[in-house]
Amino acid sequence: DVLPTAPEDVLPTAPEDVLPTAPGDVLPTAFRFDVPFRGEPSPIAPFLGKATLVVNVKFDDPISREQMPGLQSLLSRFSKQGLHVLAFPTDQGWFEAEDSNTLRIKFKTSYDFGQYPTAVVFDKADLLGGNALPLYRWMSAELVNPWGLARVTLNYEKFLLDADGQPVRRYPRRFPPEAMEADIAAVLAGSPLPPISPLF
């Protein structure tokens, strides 16, 4: 369940590898990115909510049985207030045998996850290396994980974005979704985040 750790898989961190930020440029935001959906690059804007969780998923990873019901529970509680959960599968690390459309069906039938635009499984894409999704290169450079690494290293790392599309907190693989409730409620209310949970 560990994504590749070879040197060439380390995400670039130079600003020019993410988005230009020359003087006068608008600061990067998730709203500026496209994402792969149903075989085409699509603007991410329609998929973003007042609070958005972005998570790299792997259907056959055993931890899916813990993480996916937890994410679905968060949606049940907060989707009407504006929470969206965006799932990004990848073949990097442990190979995901199914194609993207089949994965969408399996996540829906197994976890009832899949409701446009609040709960979406995107097409499989690279999250590491030179072909990594620009969205992931940017988010990873903005917020390192609890071990100080920028690149995504494990399945089910989670990024919380605010209403402006800015990443405000990053959660490691085993961080339970139910422990995110206070953070999500704060983002939905436009309030400061509570202190970082000891579960980090």
Automatic annotation (TrEMBL):
This is Thioredoxin domain-containing protein. Gene3D superfamilies: Glutaredoxin. GO terms for biological process: response to oxidative stress. GO terms for molecular function: peroxidase activity. Residues 8-189 form the Thioredoxin domain. Belongs to the glutathione peroxidase family. Keywords: Oxidoreductase, Peroxidase. It comes from the Eukaryota.
